[in-house]
Write a structure and sequence with these properties.
The complex is a heterodimer of chains A (114) and B (116). By secondary structure, chain A is mostly beta strands. Chain A has strands spanning 3-7, 10-14, 19-26, 31-38, 44-50, 56-58, 64-68, 73-78, 87-95, 103-104, 108-113. In chain A, a hairpin with a 4-residue loop joins strand 7 and strand 8 (73-78). In chain B, the strands form 2 sheets. In chain B, strands 2, 4, 5, 6, 9, 10 and 11 form a 7-stranded mixed beta sheet that branches. In chain B, strands 1-3-8-7 form a 4-stranded antiparallel beta sheet, with no helix packed on it. In chain B, 35% of the residues are buried. Classes of the chains: A mainly beta (114), B mainly beta (116). Chain A binds chain B through residues 32, 36, 41-46, 49, 51, 90, 94-102, 104-107, and chain B through 4, 31, 33, 40-43, 45, 48, 50, 55-56, 90, 92, 94, 97-105, 107-110, 112.
Chain lengths: 114, 116
């Protein structure tokens, strides 16, 4: 079965500092990996996705993530945090033969201090 | 139009009530989803519709009854709910529901449901 683990349920950074949100996946077949963001009282919005093309994926709002098969990781980074980045971030995995199922990690709440 | 619209935004219902949640998209997507999200938790898949046919039911209790009247609309009919069913119900859509979901899901803002 596929799964994702997000390390750290809460991460706090200062404005302008590097953002690093960690995600490790488990899958016996090649995975598709996603990062979604959820602002308060809203639905989820796709930040970026890895679908077996380039291993370094650039997304919206200055975020990027690198797929590392040897480490089974797909960590999300942003060089300089903005106050508007404060939100809940979900890593998710999908694989062939799951018929459209997306498995989410537990989420990481990002706080940005002024 | 790249929106998924959900109504109502908030709903309070008693355990004996019958209510419906509605979801609409006009992006020509052929796959639509219902997710349930408890506070501080990830979304949990409930149902997937592909080409207006139910393709996945994640063993959801029968007090939740989905319906897809056409390719743009998705309903979730609620009856005899329990207080533990209180949650944010999210609708989503994608171009298709392939064997592997490798494309973007578009989410609505959800319906915050409270069952008294």
């Amino acid at each position: 079965a596929q799964s994702v683990t997000q390390l750290g349920s809460h991460v706090s950074v200062s404005e302008g500092a590097l953002v690093l949100l960690r995600c490790n996946y488990s899958s016996s077949v090649p995975p598709y990996l996603f990062w979604y963001v959820q602002y308060p009282n809203q639905g989820l919005q796709l930040l970026l996705k890895y679908t077996s093309a380039a291993t370094l994926v650039k997304g919206i709002n200055g975020f990027e993530a690198e797929f590392k098969k040897s480490e089974t990781s797909f960590h999300l980074t942003k060089p300089s945090a903005h106050m508007s980045d404060a939100a809940e971030y979900f890593c998710a995995v999908s694989t062939y033969n799951q018929g459209g199922k997306l498995i989410f990690g537990q989420g990481t709440e990002l706080s940005v201090k002024p | 139009d790249t929106e998924v619209t959900q109504t109502p935004k908030h709903l309070v219902m008693g355990m004996t009530n019958k209510k419906s949640l509605k979801c609409e998209q006009h992006m020509g997507h052929r796959a639509m989803y219902w997710y349930k999200q408890k506070a501080k938790k990830p979304p949990e898949l409930m149902f997937v519709y592909s080409y207006e046919k139910l393709s996945i039911n994640e063993s959801v209790p029968s007090r939740f009854s989905p319906e897809c009247p056409n390719s743009s609309l998705l309903n979730l009919h609620l009856h005899a709910l329990q207080p533990e069913d209180s949650a944010l119900y999210l609708c989503a859509s994608s171009q298709e529901a392939r064997q592997a979901l490798n494309e973007k899901l578009f989410f609505g803002s959800g319906t915050q449901l409270s069952v008294l």
